[in-house]
Specification:
heterodimer, A: about 500 residues, alpha+beta, D-Maltodextrin-Binding Protein, domain 2, Dipeptide-binding Protein, domain 1, Dipeptide-binding Protein, domain 3, 3 domains, 11-stranded mixed sheet, 17 helices, B: about 300 residues, mainly alpha, MetI-like fold, 2 domains, 12 helices, about 75% helix, about 0% strand
Chain lengths: ~500, ~300
């Protein structure tokens, strides 16, 4: 009897094995055509201008076009649906639009489409998360078919960055005709790819828009596949099921390099990671000497080498090196003796000092490990550090409600000009640096309305130096974004962290 | 009997109500999702405006009463993220979970019952020890780790199966096996002990003396008698399988209810979490109820009161 049963089980297994080997063959053939990109989560909607989640943005940017694009390497502006732009007065921006562009439903692209899409953001009923950034837009004026003016209630020198990073053009007539619910599942843009199918929590499949105004896309079929678990994502890549995924942890790089089908591509992002020294809590961080001491006691180059395996570039001030308002500043060298004497001067005995350090887990490269390594470095001069590891939303709300510990880890960006970082981090209403100083705030308020690029850079440069002198925080590094890439795919990683399939091709 | 059914029905409603109430307050303990939906540089005033449009600025008890009064009518609201019906989203991912749980259920039956029967027959032999030992090992290994191990060997190394997803029938194999192994041990041990009880009975000795073949004795006489209590246990196990499916779904990117709830939790998409908890507690209660009915069918001495 036992033999009969065993034979049955063996037979079932044999059928299964044969079935799956024939399956993997058919998939190999498909591979030549379809690009599969692995993402940890699904898009929340396929409407543009609605959700700030990067997983959504990365996908829909292939369906819709922006007015202004960024250069992949430098992040500089590139004309796209807008061929030209200028500031008419501090409250008015004018855009000249590209002609002979059509939406995927055949409707021509024009100034009304731009106005309709901005009005979509401004309409509270649409609950666009971008409204918070766009609230100072007063009016959008259609000058002629291919010229549009945006009028703001206050001067908005960095408006072009919002246009480049936030704004994608939808077809307002289509939205009105089918309604938002349907349009959220059936997007119509001017972009290089059209929707094929979207299975929530499984995949989004796109096909090339062969009538694309900038030329036919080289890759004809694309699938964004949702693989929430990192280890599963890595395994899918090593098995050749997905061709590309981002945010590869530094400790998995060697495994990808060693695989027969994969390579690693990397780019310095415009995102900075830092250790905030919280002056909002009533602890020792209110004292400048203590903040300086922490700067001397944290050995950033060693952290970079041991925790991030060198994937990153040390920063010394508040901005990344590829930020247009970046000026060079000097780093605090690693000098534990000086740190101890500064602490003593401030009236603290490091051996009796206990600090808390809040960190997210998995939000930034090796964040938790970096926090623990910082704690170990401070321990060397006697400071006891309690590391609190938080889930992301908890971490964020702790910081926003001024409930974070003496220090916390955070990243900011990608950001290409000074204001989005400096105004959002170092003014009184901004909680993200943990640092506030009225002198710095008044310098920021003077810099904000400046329209001339050079005078802005000078003004922001002064603030950057001021922040270093006051030891506002411990600047850590510019993140290195690491991608796992199929060897047969031509892919150049971009500093703005988007995935633009139009620029990719098979070898 | 009808009294029992009514009593259980009321109990089920209370269980679901308590589960929903507990989860309602638990998920809100760590804050609301407003911050996750907005860009981090959103000004404070705008955050409050957005919180107001989502209704999270109302006192907790008002939100609760609002939720319960809608939930009674089966309305769990729209997902905060996708703006689609929360219950609709959960129901649309339920077939995937059911498919996984049922196929794992069938697989564990097909494998575990023969092992259990044969282990009882070959009691204390090497087969017995190996069979029982291996299945217990299967239950002891966390399915999260086992799943990754399977992916590594059978997908990455041998290329037999895809690493995840639910695109082709073949992508079912690894998650099904992972999940099935989890419940096999219980079925093997239970089948074995029930079979041992039956095999000791006098009538087995009698039919053996009458010259009936071993195969026939085991299947036609012994297993038939041991089967009812086994089925009852297994029915209860279906609930455990649905539960285990959550972890398995995440490892294998299987788009079922578990993954849906997990994603919703990460996004603080409360309506979807609540709809998911509702469905799971409902199914769990129904399975338990069915198991109780089965018990009484197997053993009439258990009265349904």
């Amino acid at each position: 009897m036992g033999k009969k049963m065993l034979m049955l089980v063996t037979a079932v297994l044999m059928v299964l094995t044969t079935a799956c080997s024939s399956h993997s063959n058919s998939e190999n053939n498909l591979k030549n055509k379809q690009l599969v990109i692995g993402l940890p989560s699904d898009a929340t909607t396929l409407l543009a201008d609605t959700d700030v989640n990067s997983a959504t943005d990365v996908q829909i940017r292939n369906i819709y076009d922006p007015l202004i694009k960024r250069d992949a390497k430098t992040g500089k502006f590139k004309p796209w649906l807008a061929t030209n732009w200028r500031s008419i007065n501090p409250n008015t921006w004018e855009f000249s639009l590209r002609k002979n562009v059509k939406f995927q439903n055949g409707v021509p692209f024009n100034a009304e489409a731009v106005k309709g899409s901005i009005d979509y953001i401004l309409d509270k009923a649409n609950k666009s998360a971008y409204l918070s950034r766009w609230a100072s837009i007063k009016e959008v004026k259609v000058v002629d078919n291919y010229t549009v003016q945006v009028i703001t209630s206050t001067p908005y020198p960095t408006f072009l960055h919002r246009i480049a990073d936030d704004f994608l053009v939808m077809e307002p007539g289509y939205l009105k005709k089918v309604g938002l619910k349907k349009a959220a599942n059936n997007p119509v843009g001017t972009g290089p790819y059209k929707l094929h199918t979207w299975k929530r929590n499984q995949y989004l499949r796109l096909v090339a828009n062969n009538k694309y105004w900038a030329g036919k896309p080289k890759i004809k079929k694309v699938e964004f596949r949702y693989v929430p678990e990192f280890s599963s994502r890595l395994a899918s890549f090593l098995n050749g099921e997905i061709d590309l995924f981002d945010n590869v942890p530094v400790d998995s790089v060697d495994q990808i390099k060693a695989s027969s089908t994969g390579k690693v591509e990397q780019v310095k992002s415009a995102r900075v990671d830092y250790l905030a020294l919280n002056t909002f809590s009533n602890g020792p961080m209110k004292n400048q000497k203590v903040r300086q001491a922490i700067n001397y006691a944290v050995d950033v180059p060693t952290l970079l080498k041991t925790q991030l395996n060198g994937y990153g570039v040390q920063i010394t001030g508040p901005l990344a090196k590829n930020n247009q308002d970046y000026v060079p500043t000097n780093a605090y060298p690693y000098d534990p003796k000086k740190a101890v004497s500064l602490l003593n001067e401030a009236g603290y005995n490091p051996k009796k000092l206990t600090l808390t350090l809040d960190t997210p887990n998995g939000r930034y490269p090796m964040d938790k490990q970096v926090a623990q390594a910082i704690a170990a470095q401070l321990q060397k001069i006697g400071i006891k550090v309690n590391v609190h590891v938080n889930e992301w939303e908890t971490h964020l709300s702790k910081i926003m409600q001024h409930r974070a510990g003496d220090m916390f880890l955070l990243g900011w960006g990608p950001s290409y000009e000074g204001q989005t970082t400096i105004q959002n981090l170092f003014t009184k209403s901004a909680p993200f640096s943990g640092f506030y100083d009225p002198e710095v705030e008044s310098a920021i308020n003077k810099a904000l309305p400046l329209f001339n690029e050079q005078s802005r850079k000078t003004a922001f440069g002064k603030i950057e130096q001021m922040l270093v002198d006051k030891a506002a925080w411990v600047p850590l590094w510019q993140q290195e974004n690491i991608y796992a890439v199929n060897k047969n795919l031509n892919f150049t990683p971009r500093t703005d962290e988007t995935l633009q399939i139009f620029d990719m091709s098979w070898k | 009997m009808s009294e029992f059914v009514i009593k259980r029905f009321v109990q089920t409603i209370i269980v679901i109500f308590l589960a929903l109430t507990g989860v309602f307050f638990l998920v809100r303990l760590s804050g609301d999702p407003t911050l996750l939906f907005l860009p981090p540089d959103a000004p404070k005033g705008q955050i409050e405006v957005f919180r107001h449009t989502l209704g999270f600025d109302r006192p907790m008890y008002v939100q609760y009463i609002d939720f319960i009064s809608h939930a009674i009518h089966g309305d769990f609201g729209d997902s905060l993220v996708t703006k689609e019906s929360a219950l609709g989203m959960i129901l649309s991912s339920f077939p995937a979970t059911l498919q996984l749980a049922l196929s794992a259920f069938v697989l564990s039956l097909v494998v575990a019952i023969p092992i259990g029967v044969f282990s009882a027959y070959k009691r204390d032999t090497l087969f017995d020890k190996l069979g029982v030992g291996l299945t217990v090992l299967g239950q002891a290994i966390p399915s999260f780790w086992l799943g990754l191990l399977f992916i590594y060997f059978f997908a990455v190394k041998l290329h037999w199966f895809p690493t995840g997803g639910r695109t082709t029938p073949i992508s079912m194999v690894l998650p099904t096996v992972t999940l099935a192994i989890y419940s096999m041990a219980r079925i093997v041990r239970f089948t074995r002990s029930k079979m041992l009880d039956v095999l000791k009975k006098d009538y087995i000795r009698t039919i053996r003396a009458a010259g009936v073949s071993t195969f026939e004795i085991l299947t036609k006489y012994a297993l038939k008698n041991a089967l009812l209590p086994i089925i009852t246990l297994i029915a209860l196990d279906l609930g455990v399988l649905l539960e285990g499916a959550v972890i398995t779904e995440i490892v294998f990117s299987w788009p079922g209810v578990g993954m849906q709830i997990m994603n919703a939790l990460m996004d603080r998409d409360f309506p979807v979490v609540m709809a998911g908890i509702f469905l799971i507690s409902l199914i769990y209660s129904v399975i338990n109820f069915a198991a109780d009915l089965l018990y009484s069918a197997v053993n009439p001495q258990i009265r349904l009161k």
